[in-house]
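User: tokens in, sequence out, please.
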């Protein structure tokens, strides 16, 4: 059975080893596979994906999901961050693999949005902080684009 890249599903974090090799990652996510009809890859191929559900290590996700690269991080210890934006971002911990709404609920709404790129910034008497995050089409964070503090 042939499974196209659009149909392919992988376990959460299965492509983590390719994060630092964009060429190999692109090659992997663009190729079709021939799999046994009774394999797990065939069984999960093309299944609907529900990004609102918190994934477990056994969840099968689309290749273009950030969860193919990053496992879902541990939940923050607090239900909502307090203090400065810098403190809230620090308290949430790892952002890659978190849903957009979870980040917004914790740190507050972004100051800017361009497509799937969100930016938070804050200036105070002690300095300024800004962070820009990228999200996949399922609204899961795929990583930090930039972060600065002055």
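Assistant: Sequence out:
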């Amino acid at each position: 059975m042939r499974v196209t890249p659009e149909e392919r599903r992988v376990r959460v974090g299965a492509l983590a080893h390719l994060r630092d090799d964009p060429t190999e990652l692109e090659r992997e996510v663009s190729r079709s596979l021939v799999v046994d009809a009774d394999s797990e890859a065939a069984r999960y191929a093309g299944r609907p994906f529900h990004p609102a559900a918190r994934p477990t290590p056994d969840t099968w996700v689309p290749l273009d999901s950030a969860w193919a690269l990053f496992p879902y991080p541990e939940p923050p210890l607090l239900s909502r961050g307090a203090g400065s934006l810098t403190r809230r971002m620090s308290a949430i911990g790892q952002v890659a693999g978190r849903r957009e709404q979870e980040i917004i609920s914790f740190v507050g709404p972004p100051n800017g949005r361009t497509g799937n790129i969100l930016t938070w910034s804050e200036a105070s008497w002690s300095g300024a902080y800004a962070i820009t995050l990228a999200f996949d089409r399922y609204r899961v964070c795929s990583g930090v684009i930039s972060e600065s503090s002055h």
